[in-house]
Write a structure and sequence with these properties.
392 residues, alpha/beta, seven-stranded parallel β-sheet, six-stranded parallel β-sheet, 15 helices, 13 strands
Length: 392
C-alpha cells in the first residue's frame, strides 16, 4: 500500500460518500459472521440499488472474525450503527447440542436474549435485513417475531449457496410442515430476492427473484475498504508457487482423508515450494512439526489477496473442496487454473449432508468448467496435471 492504513482510513471517511449521507429514509441491518459475508455485503451496498438504504451492521463473532475487525469497521463509519455479539456461534452450538430445547427455540422470541444477552439492536426499526445463510437465517426468524414486515435480501455465502437449500424452500413436505409448526421458517416468506454471483449454477429453484451479483472488482471501493479492515500490506505477498487451501473438516466433525491428500501434494511439489493457506477457523499451530509452510495471517480472507491479482500470477491453486478454492472463478470471473482433489476425497467417511454438497459442487461447478478446474483422481494423475500446468 502506498499510504499507511490510518491515513488511508481517514481518506476513506472523508472522500467516500458512496455508503454514507443517503437521502433515503429506509433502514436496513446487515447480518455478517465471516469475512466473505462482509465483502459480499459491501459489494451489494456499492453495486446495487439497495446501497441507497441506510445500513446498520450486526456482527456475530466467530473465532476468525472478532472484536478487532469489528472496531476497525466501526471506525470507518461505513455503517450508520454497528452491533457486536460476542462468541455468537459458540453459544448457539452449545444450545444445538440440546436437541429438545433447540426444537422449540422459535416458540418464544425472548429465547434470543437467553442465548445472546448482549444483543442490543432493535429489529423493529428496520425495513430490510441482508443475510447469508445458513446460520444467519437463525437471526432472520427471530427478527420476524419483532417485525413481521421486514424484507430479506439473501446474499451469497460460498459454495453451499449453490446446492444446499432446495429442501429448505420446498413446500408441502413433512419437514416443511414441522418447520411451520415450530416456526423454524417464519421469515422465509419475506425474502425479496437472492443475489448470487453465478445464479445459473444453483441447482434449486426459489419462489422469489434471483439476481446476478456484480463480480468483485480490484478497483472498487469494496476492495479499498477491505484492505483497511483486514490491514492488508504489500509485504503480505505470497512467494511460494503452489498454494494449498486446507479445510475445517475436523472442526466440523467431518472425517475424511484430507491430511493424506495434503501430504501427497507436498511430496510431489516439495515443501519449500508449497504454502498452506489455513482455513480461518483452523489454528495454524496444527501444522507445527510437519515442516510445511503456513500462512499464519489466516484472518486475512483469500479474496483480499485476489483483489491484488498481480501477487498471484504464475501461482498454482490446489485443494480438495472449499469456497476459497472456488472464489477466483465464482466471485472474480477468473480463469486461473485450479487443481481440485475432490476426486481423491474419501466421501464415504463424510456425513450424508456434506457428502451430497461435495458431489453437487463437483457436478455443477468443477465438471462444468474443465478449462478452469482439473480434478485428478489419484497420485499419478495429480503428478501429470501438475507437470502439464507448469509446462503451460
Amino acid at each position: 500500500m502506498k499510504v499507511r492504513a490510518s491515513v488511508y482510513s481517514r481518506e476513506l471517511r472523508r472522500e467516500t460518500n458512496l455508503y454514507m449521507g443517503r437521502q433515503n429514509d429506509i433502514c436496513g441491518i446487515a447480518i455478517v459472521d465471516s469475512p466473505l459475508q462482509l465483502l459480499n455485503t459491501l459489494n451489494m451496498m456499492e453495486t446495487t440499488s439497495y446501497g441507497q438504504i441506510k445500513w446498520d451492521l450486526l456482527m456475530l463473532e466467530e473465532p476468525a472474525f472478532g472484536k478487532i475487525l469489528f472496531d476497525r469497521i466501526t471506525s470507518l463509519g461505513i455503517f450508520r450503527k454497528t452491533y457486536f455479539v460476542e462468541s455468537a456461534w459458540d453459544k448457539l452450538r452449545n444450545l444445538q447440542k440440546q436437541r429438545i430445547k433447540w426444537a422449540g427455540i422459535y416458540l418464544n422470541r425472548n429465547n434470543i436474549y437467553k442465548i445472546w444477552p448482549d444483543l442490543s439492536c432493535d429489529f423493529s426499526e428496520y425495513q430490510y435485513m441482508s443475510f447469508c445463510p445458513a446460520a444467519d437465517f437463525f437471526v432472520c426468524n427471530f427478527a420476524h417475531f419483532f417485525n413481521n414486515t421486514i424484507k430479506y435480501i439473501w446474499l451469497e455465502d460460498g459454495m453451499s449457496s449453490y446446492a444446499n437449500y432446495g429442501e429448505f424452500l420446498q413446500k408441502g413436505t413433512a419437514k416443511d410442515f414441522a418447520r411451520k409448526m415450530l416456526r423454524h421458517n417464519s421469515g422465509k416468506k419475506n425474502i425479496e430476492c437472492q443475489y448470487l454471483y453465478r445464479p445459473e449454477m444453483a441447482n434449486y429453484g426459489v419462489p422469489f427473484e434471483r439476481v446476478k451479483a456484480r463480480f468483485l472488482n480490484p478497483d472498487s471501493e469494496t476492495a479499498r475498504i477491505a484492505d483497511v479492515i483486514f490491514d492488508f500490506k504489500s509485504n503480505d505477498m505470497i512467494k511460494e508457487k503452489y498454494i494449498y487451501f486446507d479445510n475445517a473438516f475436523a472442526k466440523d466433525g467431518i472425517n475424511t482423508n484430507d491430511n493424506e491428500i495434503l501430504r501427497t501434494v507436498s511430496e510431489i511439489v516439495g515443501k519449500d515450494n508449497l504454502l498452506v493457506k489455513v482455513h480461518p477457523r483452523n489454528d495454524p499451530s496444527i501444522y507445527e512439526g510437519t515442516g510445511l509452510k503456513v500462512n499464519k495471517k489466516n484472518y486475512i480472507p483469500w479474496e483480499i489477496y485476489y483483489f491484488h491479482k498481480e501477487m498471484l500470477e504464475n501461482k498454482i491453486l490446489i485443494g480438495a473442496v472449499s469456497t476459497a478454492l472456488l472464489s477466483p472463478f465464482l466471485y472474480f470471473d477468473s480463469r486461473q487454473q485450479v487443481i481440485s482433489l475432490v476426486e481423491m476425497l474419501e466421501l464415504d467417511k463424510m456425513n450424508e449432508k456434506f457428502r451430497k454438497l461435495v458431489i453437487d459442487i463437483k457436478k455443477i461447478v468443477m465438471k462444468q468448467h474443465p478449462e478452469v478446474f482439473s480434478t485428478p483422481s489419484n497420485y499419478k494423475e495429480l503428478k501429470d496435471v501438475l507437470e502439464e500446468v507448469v509446462h503451460e
